[in-house]
Design goal:
Elements (H helix, E strand, L loop, with lengths): L1 E5 L4 H13 L4 E6 L19 E5 L5 H11 L3 E4 L6 H6 L2 H20 L4 E7 L26 H20 L3 E6 L1 E3 L8 H10 L4 E4 L5 E6 H14 L4 E5 L4 E3 H11 L7 E4 L14 H7 L7 H14 L1 H9 L9
Parallel strand pairs: 1-2, 1-4, 2-3, 4-5, 5-6, 6-10, 7-9, 8-12
Antiparallel strand pairs: 9-11
Helix pairs in contact: 1-7, 2-4, 4-5, 6-8
Bound molecules: nicotinamide-adenine-dinucleotide and 2'deoxy-thymidine-5'-diphospho-alpha-D-glucose (DAU).
Length: 334
């Protein structure tokens, strides 16, 4: 089968490509990425030369380009990881989130319909469900929790999800959607809490913790997210949504302290700053549907996963420094 993987130079997409290009020699993977500020060719450089893989630079919002790509390549499966993904950016500048995350999805689905793609998979997020109170640990997001978004980012992702379900019902596009909680692991752009904390701690810089640091996220290793996406794409039922979660809820302040401890750095680096506008309090995912129906199982517990992840960043300081200096933008020679 021929796969189109959009956003493959980003954090989750690049981890996905490393996983599947090793696992499936008989499938072929085309990575499409616009290499925005969050796309880093260093994440996928080592895939060059693999027989079952190629990279194409391009934008999912460029309709003519996407049409030609689909016409030339005849994809069987499309997995849409491409997105503007950072909540803080969406608060400062919503428009690009609407264009990439909604219009980009529409353009990919139009091409999928026209060129008879057998499966369109949308990589979505638990943020579409809004947030949960801190004092109700019994409450979790299920697939039937109503969409109730907070930020322009989550609203753009929820809008895309609604559009995906509309293309299923109206045009019969064979779709699936996965909604995952907060990922951690290698190759995450250091604008997000965990790699940002590591990068700042390495340079003995202040670490900004929003508000009181009590907000809770449900952390999942990116590998476990990706084995879930792979399973849903290959075995999931058309027209269905599947939640994927880490079952590892932690307040932000605990995450930051844990990283500082492993790095032997002082907690004095922690700086409480103004809270994020509209800051979601708590996310927590019920993954029992994908576990029961498709047999998905997490392979990482949080303690092992976070330790390995911190070690990865400490062993790959050049990867971080390339981002800090901006050199990573020249990593794709085209
Ligand atoms: P990321 O920001 O690291 O990567 C996004 C990638 O998409 C980048 O390589 C970027 O260059 C590319 N891209 C952006 N606009 C594009 C466009 N117009 N055309 C082509 N490529 C474009 O994001 P991520 O953290 O890897 O997230 C991937 C997907 O997973 C997103 O859809 C996100 O909403 C979703 N998600 C992320 C998390 C998380 O914790 N990071 C959790 C659940 C779901
Ligand atoms: O839940 C899934 C979502 O997780 C994905 O859909 C998003 O693409 C991804 O970015 C992530 O969103 P968050 O907003 O939860 O991630 P972020 O790393 O930006 O922030 C995690 C928590 O840490 C959040 O409560 C805000 C807080 N934070 C973040 C940053 C960057 C801080 O306290 N300080 C910071 O500097």
């Amino acid at each position: 089968m021929k796969f189109l993987i959009t956003g493959g130079a980003g954090f989750i997409g690049s981890n996905y490509l490393h996983y599947v290009t090793d696992k499936y020699n008989d499938d072929y993977f085309v990575c499409l990425d616009a290499l925005t500020y969050a796309g880093n060719y260093n994440n996928i450089k080592d895939l060059e030369g693999k027989d079952n893989y190629k990279f194409v630079k391009g934008d999912i919002t460029d309709r003519a380009f996407i049409d030609k790509l689909f016409c030339d390549e005849k994809f069987d499966v499309v997995i849409n990881f491409a997105a503007e993904s950072h909540v803080d950016n969406s608060i400062k500048n919503p428009e690009i989130f609407l264009v990439t995350n909604i219009i980009g999805t529409e353009i990919l689905m139009d091409a999928s319909l026209k060129y008879n793609v057998k499966r369109y998979h949308q990589v979505s997020t638990d943020e579409v469900y809004g947030d949960l109170p801190l004092d109700r640990p019994d409450l979790l997001f299920t697939e039937s929790t109503p969409l109730h978004t907070s930020s322009p980012y989550s609203t753009s992702k929820a809008s895309a999800d609604l559009l995906v379900m509309a293309y299923y019902r109206t045009y019969g596009l064979p779709v699936t959607i996965s909604r995952c909680s907060n990922n951690y692991g290698p190759y995450q752009f250091p604008e997000k809490l965990i790699p940002l904390t590591i990068m700042k701690a390495l340079n003995n810089e202040n670490i900004p913790v929003y508000g009181t640091g009590e907000n809770v996220r449900d952390w999942i290793h990116v590998y476990d997210h990706n084995i879930g996406v792979d399973l849903i794409v290959r075995k999931g039922k058309i027209g269905e949504v599947y939640n994927l979660g880490g079952h590892s809820e932690r307040p932000n302040i605990e995450i930051v302290k844990l990283i500082l401890k492993q790095m032997n750095k002082s907690e004095d680096l922690i700086t409480f700053v103004e809270d994020r506008k509209g800051h979601d309090l708590r996310y927590a995912i019920d993954s029992s549907k994908v576990e029961k129906e498709l047999g998905w199982k997490r392979t990482y517990d949080f303690e092992r996963g976070i330790k390995e992840t911190i070690d990865w960043y400490l062993n790959n300081k050049e990867w971080i420094n390339d981002i800090k200096s901006g050199r990573y933008k020249e990593s794709y020679k085209g």
